[in-house]
Amino acid sequence: MSCARSEYQRLCQEHGTKTVKDVLKQLSPAENTDRTQLIGLDFSGITMSTKMWEIIGRLLQRDRSIIALKAADSYLSEDRCQALCCHLASNFTLTTLNLKGNGLRAKGASTLSIVLKRNKSIQCLSLEWNSFGMDEDAFAMLMEGLAVNTSVLHLDLRNNHITHLGGRQIATALTQNQTLQELDLSWNHCGTVGGKALLDSLHKNRTVAMLELCGNNIPDDITTAIGLALQRNVDRHQLESTYSNKTQHLSQALDKEMLSKKKEISSMLDKLEAQRSAFDKTLQASQERIVELQQDLGLREEEIEQLQARMSSTETTLRVSEDQGRQYQNIVEQLRTELAATHEVHLEELSDEKDKYHTVQMEKRATEKLAVETTDSLREKVALLDRSKKQLTAAVTELHDEKKQLELQLQRLETSFQTQLLSLEQRHTKTLQEQQSNAQEELNRSRHTAAGREHALQEQLRQAELKHSELEQELSRLKTSSLSARESLVADQKAQLQQIKNEHKLNIRHFEERSQQLQVELDTKQSQIIQATSTANQLQARLTAVTQESMTEKQTLQEHVKKLESAAEENRTAADTERRERRDAVSKSQELHDRCRHLEQELVRQKTKLTDVETQHIGQLATKERDIATLTERADGLSKQLQRQRDGELQRAGQLESALTAFVSNTKSAHI
């Protein structure tokens, strides 16, 4: 308000006029009020000059906080009204204008018509107790402005001397205006002609809901018809408002649902993108791991080639050992021939040694039984501890079988020696002892060399088995981590390794058979048999140690395999969860699409229902209009009948008056 006050004072200084106290009071801010609050000015009963009203019009044009102006009974002349209203045409904040009781006529109507044509903010216009209807041309201009206006909702034209021509002009304006809702024409002179024109205009106008016509000398049938038309407009307004509210509510609900669904879809898409990125990362990591495993496979293949080269070198050493065994066989055959030549000579000499030999033989048999029992127990333990070492145990059993065969051969030789020893002589004992000592030394040397070679071969076998176990571990890891495409390569490599292993085992068996042959040939005497049993016990102890090491390695392998299987199961469960989440996301998106479609279908149904209801209401309105038309026709017929009755009554009244006048004249003449 302080801004409006200062603006008013400045305008007064520009025009060289003094301020008015009443205006300053209206523009002075009250206590505890906001300065930006919208205000209304009330100049009712205040008389001011033309310049002051022009200043107020300029103030209304510049200040946007004034929304209402009341100038009732302010003795506004035509010039003062023109000075005020010429600035209201460009105002866009004033919503209420009250010019009651100012006696405005032609100039006021023309200026107000300009305001109605240009102004787009005035909604309530009160022109009560003026004289616009006395000048028909000026009133026609005012109605032209009303016909074009699109903002006025309430218009008050009470006591404006509006005749039936003015009623027709108002009717023509109402046929064009589609915003006016309330019109007050009380206490004018519209008559039946104006009432009929207004009734005809209401058939075209669908916005006017209230029309006051009391004191206009309009018949009751016309007023009832006008009331029906107004009720029709009211019903139409209510239906349109309800339909608009329903459509707005549905559109808002649909917009909210669509926004929520869009948000859900966007969140689901973000989750899918995150899952895809995680899956891509895992794929990338797995591909990198596959590349690393391929590199490891290449290294392992190189190691396998090195092992093959070592196997070839061991085969060459085995061949050399076979050649040496053949040489030893030749030496043994020579010794046998010498023994056969000297067998007959030494029969007599060996008769004394027969008893000693029997005792030694009994001791040998006892030791052999103990060795057999120990070997059997060791076999059972080896079979229980490791089934994978069946081939080695089979080789050991073959060794024991060959030992038994050798024992049988020795028994046969002993029987032959017994028959031959009887014929030998005692004189050749010294030479035989010397030869035996020499043969024994040579056999000891060959035994030591064979034992060293066997030890080296066993170490090579243990290293090969360790490498083989390591290769099996790496192959198991590769199997769990690599893809199905690499499984065939791994299987081929495993088959090759198995073939190499089988070949290596076959070579070892050949070497063991050759060594057994050497032992059979060398174990011709009792000392050699005892030493062979001791070496067998050592070999069994080594086998137990090897089997224990293999069992520990197997346990570690099983633990690694379990860990790899658990990791694979976790990866599978993670993949399954990801697949389920993707399926759930796809199902949710499908459900959202289905819901959107369902909502669209419901909207279409609601629209069809609304159209059906609109068609029904239009039909009902059409029937009501037809009823109104029939009622109007009936009212016209009744009015005509009433007019005829009135004319007849007037004629009868005239006849009665003429008869009374004649009777009075006759009575006067009679008295005279």
SSE topology sketch:
Blueprint: H1 2-15, H2 21-27, E1 39-42, H3 50-62, E2 66-70, H4 78-88, E3 96-98, H5 106-118, E4 124-126, H6 136-148, E5 154-156, H7 164-176, E6 182-184, H8 191-204, E7 210-212, H9 220-343, H10 353-385, H11 390-421, H12 429-481, H13 484-522, H14 526-671
Helix pairs in contact: 1-3, 3-4, 4-5, 5-6, 6-7, 7-8, 8-9, 9-12, 9-13, 9-14, 10-11, 10-14, 11-13, 12-13, 12-14
Task: Describe the 3D structure.
The longest helix has 146 residues, at 526-671. α9 packs parallel to α13 (484-522). This protein has 672 residues and is mostly helical. The protein is built from 14 helices and seven strands. The protein starts with a helix and ends with a helix. It is rod-shaped. A seven-stranded parallel β-sheet has the order 1-2-3-4-5-6-7. Mean pLDDT is 76; it is low at 31-36.
Number of helices: 14
Radius of gyration: 66 Å
Question: What is the strand content?
Answer: under 5%
**Structural class designation:** mainly alpha
Number of strand elements: 7
Helix content: over 70%
Q: What order do the helices and strands follow?
A: HHEHEHEHEHEHEHEHHHHHH
Label the overall shape: rod-shaped
Provide the spatial order of strands within the biggest beta sheet: 1-2-3-4-5-6-7
Q: Kindly report how far apart the N and C termini lie.
A: 89 Å
Low-confidence stretches: 31-36
